Each structure stands twice: as structure tokens, then as C-alpha cells.
């Protein structure tokens, strides 16, 4: 009579394996996007708008010309001026 002894099959613990693979994928994608990815769109858009910014920075604004303009003087103020009151209670510790 022969005795057959089967070895118990090793069960694979899937959680650490999936965790390690996902961590590896995240690290690889992080390295790719930090060092090898093409330039973002915002840098391309900003470089095209530099000419517009240069034109805007060249505008000289003269406030006296605006204030003395008759069209500006015709304007009326519809909001009452803000009244400043006391900022709070007096400090009881000061004498």
C-alpha cells in the first residue's frame, strides 16, 4: 500500500503584490511626468501672450487727464460714503 503525500499548495497573497505593482506604476508615472513629459500647454499660451503684455505695459495713464475730463465730471455718485465709527469697545485694562 503506497502512501501519497501531497504538498500543500502555497497561496499567493494578492494584496501586497497589487500594492507593490501599483506603487511601482505610480513612481514610474511620477518620474515620467516630472522629467520626460512635454511642456504643459500653459507655457505655450503664456509665450504667445507676451507681446500683448508688452503693449499693455507701454500704456501711460495720466490720472489728471481722466479726472479733468468733462465726461468724468458729469458722473454722479449713487452710493453714500462709508462712515467710520469706533473700531470696538474701549480697552478696560488701560487707565
UniProtKB/TrEMBL annotation:
It comes from the Bacteria. Keywords: Membrane, Transmembrane, Transmembrane helix. The keyword Transmembrane helix applies. The chain crosses the membrane at residues 12-35. This is Uncharacterized protein.
